[in-house]
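RECORD TYPE: inverse folding
INPUT: C-alpha cells
STRUCTURE:
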C-alpha cells in the first residue's frame, strides 16, 4: 500500500467546486413548487360577443392562453384589470385547423392580489366556447423543471442557508478528497489522478447548470429552475454515468496493456500514397470489428444505444427528450430491419 498525501491544490479545488454548487443551487432551485405554482383552467360557454371573467390571483407575472374556433369569431379586445392587451404583448399565436391559440405574457405590474378581471370582446359573431388557461410560470417540462418569467415572485432569491452550504461542502469533501485518498491507498493511481477523475465525473452536471444559469442571465425574459429533488437526482445520475465510463475506460486500458504488442498499419490517403500508423493490437481489433459490421448491423447497434438512453432521461424527468430518443431509435431499428429484409430478398432472388 502506497503512502498518499492530500495536496493543497486538491483542497482548494474541492472548496471551489463546493462554492460553485452552492451558488448554482441558490440561483436555480425553488422550494415547494406545488404550493407556489398554480394553473387555472376554464372552458367558458356564452352567447354574447363580450365576456367578463373574475379570477382570484396573487400578485405575480402570468402566462395566459386563450383557445377558440377562429371560424366562429375573432378577437376584438382583451382587457386585464382594465388594461388592454394589444398585439404587442401577444407572445405567440398558434393555429391548428380551425382552432387558434393565442398566448400572452401578463407582467405583474397589471396584476393585483385578490380579484382580477378579464374582459374579452369579439368582432361580429362570438365562438360557442373558449378555453382559458392561466399559469404563473411559462412552462413546466415536468413536475421538477419549470421555466419562469424573469420577474416572477417565485424566482430563487439567490440566498442559500448555511445548512445547505455546510451540507454541500461536506459532500464535496467526501467525494473529491475522501474517496481519492481512500482509493489511492490500494490502487496504483495517484490521488491527483483520482481527484481529476472525480472532476471529470461532475463536469457534465456543472456545465449543464452553468449553461442554464447563463441563459437565464442573458435572456432577460425566462429563467430555468429545478426542484431540490431533481437537483440532487440530476447530480447523482450524471455523476454516476460518467464515473462508470471512467471505470470502464480504466479496465479497457488494463486489457490493452495485456495486448501491448503494436503493429504497423498502412492507411491509404490518396492514389499512390499511404499513411503509416502504429496501433495497439487491441485498438486495431476494435477498428476491424467496427469496420467489418454491415450497415444494417450498425443501425441496430445505434438503436440499442439510443434506446438505453431513454430510461436515464425518463429518470431525469426529461420526458420530451426521451420521446425524441425513442423516435430516433425506432428509425434506426426500422432502417436496419428494412435493409436486412431487402438483402435477404435479393439473396433469395439470386438463388432462383
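DESIGNED SEQUENCE:
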Amino acid at each position: 500500500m502506497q503512502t498518499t498525501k492530500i495536496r493543497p491544490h486538491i483542497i482548494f479545488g474541492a472548496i471551489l467546486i463546493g462554492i460553485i454548487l452552492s451558488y448554482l443551487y441558490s440561483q436555480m432551485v425553488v422550494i415547494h413548487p406545488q404550493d407556489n405554482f398554480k394553473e387555472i383552467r376554464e372552458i367558458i360557454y356564452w352567447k354574447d360577443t363580450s365576456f367578463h371573467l373574475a379570477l382570484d390571483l396573487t400578485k405575480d407575472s402570468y402566462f395566459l392562453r386563450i383557445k377558440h374556433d377562429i371560424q366562429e369569431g375573432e378577437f376584438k379586445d382583451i382587457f386585464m384589470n382594465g388594461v388592454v392587451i394589444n398585439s404587442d404583448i401577444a407572445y405567440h399565436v398558434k393555429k391548428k385547423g380551425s382552432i387558434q391559440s393565442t398566448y400572452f405574457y401578463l407582467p405583474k405590474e397589471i396584476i393585483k392580489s385578490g380579484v382580477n378581471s378579464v374582459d374579452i370582446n369579439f368582432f361580429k359573431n362570438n365562438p360557442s366556447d373558449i378555453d382559458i388557461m392561466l399559469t404563473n410560470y411559462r412552462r413546466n417540462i415536468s413536475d421538477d423543471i419549470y421555466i419562469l418569467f424573469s420577474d416572477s415572485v417565485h424566482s430563487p432569491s439567490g440566498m442559500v442557508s448555511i445548512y445547505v452550504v455546510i451540507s454541500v461542502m461536506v459532500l464535496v469533501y467526501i467525494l473529491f478528497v475522501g474517496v481519492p485518498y481512500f482509493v489511492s491507498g490500494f490502487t496504483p493511481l495517484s490521488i491527483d489522478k483520482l481527484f481529476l477523475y472525480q472532476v471529470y465525473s461532475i463536469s457534465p452536471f456543472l456545465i449543464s447548470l452553468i449553461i442554464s444559469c447563463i441563459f437565464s442571465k442573458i435572456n432577460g425574459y425566462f429563467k430555468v429552475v429545478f426542484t431540490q429533488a431533481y437537483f440532487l437526482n440530476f447530480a447523482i445520475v450524471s455523476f454516476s454515468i460518467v464515473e462508470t465510463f471512467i471505470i470502464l475506460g480504466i479496465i479497457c486500458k488494463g486489457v490493452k496493456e495485456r495486448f501491448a504488442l503494436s503493429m504497423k498499419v498502412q492507411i491509404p490517403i490518396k492514389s499512390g500514397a499511404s499513411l503509416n500508423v502504429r496501433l495497439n493490437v487491441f485498438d486495431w481489433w476494435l477498428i476491424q470489428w467496427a469496420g467489418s459490421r454491415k450497415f444494417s448491423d450498425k443501425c441496430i447497434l445505434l438503436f440499442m444505444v439510443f434506446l438505453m438512453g431513454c430510461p436515464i432521461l425518463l429518470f431525469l424527468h426529461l420526458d420530451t427528450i426521451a420521446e425524441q430518443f425513442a423516435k430516433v431509435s425506432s428509425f434506426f431499428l426500422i432502417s436496419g430491419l428494412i435493409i436486412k429484409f431487402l438483402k435477404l430478398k435479393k439473396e433469395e432472388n439470386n438463388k432462383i
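NOTES: Confidence is low (pLDDT under 50) at residues 260-267, 273-279.
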